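Lecture 7 notes: from sequence to structure.

We start with a single chain of 137 residues. Read the sequence below before looking at the structure.
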Amino acid sequence: MKPILILGGSHQDKRGVLKYNNNFDVTSVKRMYIIENIDTFLVRGWQGHKIEQRWFTAVTGEFKIALIKIDNWKNPSKALEKITFKISNTSADVLYIPQGYISSIQAITEASKLLVMADYRINEIQDEYRFSSDYFV
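Now the structure, written as tokens:
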């Protein structure tokens, strides 16, 4: 499976704005948390999961998210293809990251907040992999 952007939308009327995503099925979500980078220069990565799936949505601001499908978890190739997405809070788009991917996350605007949802509870499995930010070419 490949990462996909599940498009949301928004509706505005005299009462305000409603942001929605009627195509996102939350059945698999078991936990969630919010990431807020200290500034727009910090790149949080590379981190990912062999088994877990993740879903990202921008609550506030805008993010650049790069993803890499790992070929070998003990010694991945340094020249793996990067797929880059930009998501913002202008609609309720959800970026789906299937198992087997690592990510790097960078806020594009100050005070951006990223909601992360996962399909396993904390400490339910040991499935966190980290690589230095300069590992991949």
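The longest strand covers residues 62-69. Keep this in mind for problem set 3.
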